[in-house]
Amino acid sequence: MKCVMRVTEYCNLKCSYCYMNSINNNYNFESLTTILEVINSLNEINIDKLIITGGEPFLRPDIFDIIKESKKYFETTILTNGSLINNKIAKNLSKIGIDGVSISFESTNANIHNEYRDNSYNSAVNAAKLIKDQNIPVDMSICVSKNNVHDFINLIKLAKDLKLDSITFEALNPSGRGINLKNLMLNSLETEKFLDNVYKYMKNQKPSIKIFMFYPQWILWDDKASGCEVGKSLFAVKYNGDILPCSNLPIKLGNILKDDFNEIWNSDLLKNLRCKRIGICNDCSHKYKCGGCRSQALKDGNIFSSDPTCNFK
Question: Taking every annotated instance into account, which residue ranges of this chain make up the domain Radical SAM core (predicted)?
């Protein structure tokens, strides 16, 4: 089972897409003691991978203490905007054995990247190079929108040129600051065309780099894909122990430091998500493997609505 752990809500950038509306001033970091207690509580349940996110995790002066504690128990990766990565940090990541680093990119066009990701293109490229120089696996993380959907081949080529290990595509999320950019979200037909184009590229070009598609309906192109993992093999936890269905769903299910995890895991909300009682998706023959993206459903204000990015009914 995977857990996404948000170690802070603070960030040094103010990206237009930020799903959680990160705070970029007056840093007042959450207690390291509490975070270590959360990690130890996670070790008591069936977790094998921890994905550290923020905000920007490297703003925390104690981030290496957090990674070290996580590495005692789990495969550990971290998601960053790359702006704070220097040679010393890259070497420390290698020394403590981080299993992978994911860096956010917007476009191969620096102007587009900088417009939506707060002038961070050069630092993202530099971070990727520094971390790869330490032989750490690096993933390029792409938030797909109308700005960059036509740039996906160039993004794959850039990832290959930087000698990265993988590239991940996922849809623009309609939450946080992203809710103000709904006009940039792909509709269901545009999403279907994008997924089909990626599939054809992979089939024809057979790229050496790994390509991950965080779209539940990708199972219709790749039968090895897993669809939505929420409530099955994935959940999220905040720095204070609050448990969320996933990092994109701002719904508190309970607190791992105060509540019984089995009761949380068997809550009515997660049971209903597992049963796929979700709008039009409920009648779809692919619902148990796909399930639609619940954070995308929030575009209509209800996680049990149909996924508006899916064209299959």
Answer: 1-206
pTM for this predicted structure: 0.90
pLDDT, one tens digit per residue, over 90-112 is 999 999 999 999 999 989 998 88
Tokens 């009761």 found at: 263
Measure Cα distances from 261 to 2, 46, 100, 198, 235 in Å. 14, 11, 27, 38, 11
CA dist 113 and 141 (Å) reads 13
Closest by alpha carbon to 230, among 283, 304, 285? 304
Place of tokens 């290990």: 165
Residue range 265-307, pLDDT digits in tens: 999 888 877 776 666 667 777 766 776 777 777 766 777 777 7
pLDDT digits (tens, 9 = 90+) for 182-232: 778 888 899 999 999 999 999 999 999 999 998 888 888 887 877 778 888
Classify residue 205 by burial, with Cβ atoms within 10 Å: 0-12, 13-18, 19+: exposed
